[in-house]
From TrEMBL:
A GO BP annotation: lipoprotein localization to outer membrane
A cellular component term, taken from the record's GO annotations: plasma membrane protein complex
Keyword Lipoprotein carried by entry: yes
Principal location listed in the UniProt entry: membrane
Protein name in UniProt: Lipoprotein-releasing system permease protein
């Protein structure tokens, strides 16, 4: 056994239970354990929230979305669509027209996003994570129907069982040089039959109404232009590889975004918050590790005679310094190991049994989402090692300067 480690472990396992330094070392270990456990738990919660956001948005968004690199819309031809459909890994191509419109139901009005989609839209497996009410049906060209966000339905006080009230849609016409005094000539109008409500996320629930593509193209005078194409990737296909193939096929005139890129800002915010929480808790862990500094400093004073004896029998400064560094490492690593295990158990219990509820009746999940990632355990361990070294170095340096003639 390494001599410095042997001596450090004997100091740590001192049988003087009432020794104040021993008690302080145990307190230091507990502080490190609690800080480490908190890091693991909080980082796992952020991982769970990030996964929840991804899954909720994936219920509404496409796996891949094609948009024009410049401008709002682009022309679509049957042969061009077929060439995209024939790309390896592409299973479904859905045409999309999306813009703001004014909606009226009875005496209520609301401004929201009108999203026109082709008939295969529901074949993407939409709304798999969330709630739906009514019949998910977009109707026919003669009787178009709408799938409405729950928030929009609330704002308009809509009733799916009322077959006599229709949803009116108003969209402004392009401005012309010739003026008119007839307000009805300033906008296009259409009528939709409310078919169903969906609830995925507040951002979508309060802002979206989904309708048939032909209805929206006629209302908005888009003709063969589209604002986006939504792609469903075949089962077992790698999304990133399919994205590369689409980009190579489409050229620089189009962008191809996966679900993360479609909401890059929000996911970046979550990652930044996670980083700052990690830094903050690391500082708290550093404060808890100050006990290591004090316990080792007091131990260096108490063991001054032992240190002098070691020097008298030929020990070098490196050996004495190593003893105190390893003493700090034993305290910190013992606490860190306990903290990692406790953190793992708590996160596992939350994931399995749902110990802590969100307390939101309308949420699509009941309990706080958590997810363990091995990199969190790794970086937490790195933080503990760095903090331990900084807390132990100064006392070890002081102890290594003791000489027999100092007694």
């Amino acid at each position: 056994m390494n001599l410095s480690f042997f001596i450090a472990s004997r100091y740590f396992r001192s049988k003087k239970k009432r020794n104040f330094i021993t008690i302080l070392s145990r307190i230091s270990m507990i502080g490190v354990a609690v800080g480490t456990m908190a890091l693991v738990v909080v980082l796992s919660v952020f991982n769970g929230l990030e996964d929840l956001v991804r899954s909720l948005y994936a219920s509404f968004d496409a796996e891949l979305k094609i948009e024009a690199a410049a401008g709002k819309s682009f022309e679509v031809e049957a042969a061009w669509l077929e060439s995209i459909q024939n790309i390896e890994g592409v299973e479904i191509v859905t045409e999309v027209i999306e813009d703001n419109a004014l909606f009226k139901y009875r005496d209520y009005q609301h401004l929201a996003r009108l999203k026109g989609v082709s008939d295969n839209y529901l074949d993407h497996g939409r709304f798999g994570r969330g709630y739906t009410w009514g019949n998910l049906d977009l109707g026919t060209s003669g009787r178009p129907k709408a799938i409405i966000g729950r928030g929009v339905g609330f704002f308009l006080s809509m009733d799916l069982d009322n077959e006599f009230e229709m949803l009116q849609v108003f969209y402004p016409k392009a401005p012309r040089s010739a003026g008119t005094i007839d307000p009805s000539q300033l906008y296009n109008t259409g009528v939709l039959r409310p078919a169903a409500f969906f609830s995925v996320d507040k951002e979508f629930d309060d802002n979206y109404i989904i309708a048939p593509l032909d209805f929206v193209a006629s209302l908005l005078n888009y003709g063969s232009r589209r604002t986006a194409l939504e792609i469903k990737v075949g089962e077992g296909e790698n999304i990133q590889k399919v994205k590369k193939r689409l980009r190579a096929h489409l050229g620089e005139g189009f962008t191809v975004k996966d679900t993360d890129e479609q909401h890059a800002g929000l996911l970046r915010t979550i990652k930044i918050e996670k980083l700052f929480v990690f830094i903050t808790l690391s500082f708290i862990l550093a404060v808890a590790s100050f006990n290591i500094f004090f316990s080792l400093s007091m131990m260096a004073i108490e063991k001054k005679k032992d240190t002098a004896i070691l020097f008298a029998i030929g020990a070098r400064e490196k050996l004495v310094r190593s003893i105190y560094l390893k003493q700090g490492a034993i305290i910190a690593f013992s606490g860190a190991l306990i903290g990692l295990v406790l953190g793992f158990v708590l996160v596992w219990a939350q994931d399995t049994f749902g110990l802590v509820s969100l307390g939101i009746a309308s949420s699509v999940i009941e309990n706080y989402p958590v997810k363990m990632v091995w990199t969190d355990f790794f970086w937490t361990s790195v933080a503990v090692i760095a903090i331990t070294f900084l807390a132990s170095y100064r006392p070890a340096l002081i102890a290594s300067k003791v000489r027999p003639n100092d007694l």
